[in-house]
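User: Here's a chain of 65 residues. Predict its fold as tokens.
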Amino acid sequence: SELARKHMITLIEDLNRMKEYKEDTLFLAASIADRYLVNLAVKKANQPCLIRLAIICTLMAAKLE
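Assistant: Prediction complete.
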């Protein structure tokens, strides 16, 4: 849902701020999460835990940068 996604993005923002990552890392993490959720929606799969997804996407974005 839109509200759940908003909470996930807020968590990504908080993690980004706490770890002092670049702003690009924030946008990349949000993009990774959104693309993953779209792929799940196309496959009609169950929604994952958005807290875990936010953490994983933030770490992936930081690693890619």
